[in-house]
Amino acid sequence: MTEEKLSRLKLYTLLLVEDDEELLNKLNIILSIFFKEVITMPDGKDALDVYKTQKIDMIISDYSMPHMSGYELFKEIRKENKKIPLVIMSNYSDSEKLLNSIPLSLAHYLVKPVDYTTLTSTLVSMVERLEESEVLTYKISDELSYDTSKKELHDSEKVVPLSKSEIITLELLLQNKDKIVSNNEIELNLDPTENKSEQAIKSLIYRLRKKVGKDKILNISGFGFMLKL
């Protein structure tokens, strides 16, 4: 169950905020294993600018930083976003800061130094927070939605059956929505050990288009495919 929940993070972008460069780099290496993308920032002020201009799904931030603390950063974010999972990091002796952070509705609280087991359990808590707020559901159209936790495509009240290859490809397109995904990327995600012909990829996309709509998956001639939501 834990591995299954952690695998869902590949659909999401994490903003990691920490002014200690060594710790920032260490955490970035580990967290990049789990997330689609990890964006790193050295202080809260720059992190807030990134949050306002980019699609950020989760945030882990140090509490004490120059220019803007993690607490101040999260306070600003909570003014307009009650659902995004937030995690604050602080030293063992900073129990008062933890109490201050309770009103921020954190997904978790990390005590430094952060060990791998605690970090992964924190990531699971973040996924569960997404599940609670139904953020793990992608709205494809007025009638269609895809539930990443159950790996199900829903058409109003019924479930549209998807093959394993269709699930992998749809999730890859969702991870890169509004971006071109090449035939080679699709092939590698399906099975890096098996070569698939261009026609086999086209047939797979054809079947998927019949289920999500031809206008949703665009064929970018000579480059690949793009999902438009």
From TrEMBL:
CDD domains found in the cross-reference section: REC, trans_reg_C
In Swiss-Prot or TrEMBL terms, this protein is called: Response regulator transcription factor
| Species, as recorded | Candidatus Sulfurimonas baltica
Entry GO MF terms: phosphorelay response regulator activity; transcription cis-regulatory region binding
Domain (OmpR/PhoB-type) spans: 135-229
Q: Which InterPro entries does this entry report, sorted A to Z?
A: CheY-like_superfamily, OmpR/PhoB-type_DNA-bd, Sig_transdc_resp-reg_C-effctor, Sig_transdc_resp-reg_receiver, WalR-like, WH-like_DNA-bd_sf
The UniProt entry, under Gene3D superfamilies, shows:
3.40.50.2300, Winged helix-like DNA-binding domain superfamily/Winged helix DNA-binding domain
Q: Write out the entry's keywords from A to Z.
A: DNA-binding, Phosphoprotein, Transcription, Transcription regulation, Two-component regulatory system
Residue ranges of the DNA-binding region? 135-229
GO cellular component terms listed in the entry, alphabetical order: cytosol; protein-DNA complex
For the Response regulatory domain, which residue ranges apply? 13-127
GO BP field: regulation of DNA-templated transcription
- Tell me the residues on which 4-aspartylphosphate occurs: D62
Domain of life according to the entry: Bacteria
